[in-house]
Amino acid sequence: MEERLVDIIVYLLEEFQESVKQENYRNLSQKLISRGYTEDEINFAFSWIANSWQDRHKAPNDDFHYSEDANRILHDVERLVIDADAFGYLLQMRHLGLLSDSDLENVIDKALSLRSADINVHEIKSIVASIIFGMDSDQDSWSGFLFPRGSNTIH
Predict the structure, then answer these.
(1) Which one, of 97, 141, 137, 106, lies nearest residue 124 by Cα?
(2) HSE (CB half, 13 Å, CA atoms) of 103?
(3) Which 3 state secondary structure label does DSSP give 16?
(4) pLDDT digit string (tens) for the chain, length 155 residues
């Protein structure tokens, strides 16, 4: 399910980048529904972009950044494990701002740790979902999304 959410978020971010004028969100939702996504998934993606994606850009978690003109290429060993389409997908995620430079490196590290000879786009999406939704660390980004930050109490 998380991979489907990543697909929706990617679609929306691409649409937001291409559209200079204010987009009709209802039309975007209808396009996504026609592609087989549910209203709940679409609403979650819009909410995640409005809440979490913006927070990720305001307060970077680390000091690791590539220089502006740097291009990340795969080492020979990494290239044996991660197929070209999967790496292209990773670069797209970085370009859209879903992954920071540090996140990109974490995804590559996690892909290598799977000890599979052929990591494809589907497996990369799963790793990306675990990172952007905070499911792979002690920091639970779901808690701030589902409950007000600083309180997990429901009244």
Answers:
(1) 106
(2) 27
(3) helix
(4) 688 999 999 999 888 877 645 557 778 889 999 999 999 999 999 888 888 766 665 545 556 666 666 778 899 989 999 999 999 999 999 888 888 888 888 999 999 998 777 899 999 999 999 988 876 544 444 444 443 344 434 43
Residue 119: strand pairing partners: 82
Does the pTM surpass 0.90? The reply is: no
Residue linked to tokens 């494809």: 120
Phi (first) and psi of residue 37, to 5 degrees: -90, 150
How far apart CA 73 and CA 84 sit, in angstroms, is 11
Other C-beta atoms lying within 10 Å of the C-beta of residue 17:
11
- Cβ-in-10-Å burial (0-12, 13-18, 19+) of 130 comes to middle
Gap between the terminal Cα atoms of the chain: 29
Distance separating alpha carbons of residues 138 and 118, to the nearest angstrom? 28
Q: Which amino acid is at 57?
A: H
Angle at 125 between CA 148 and CA 150, to 5 degrees: 10
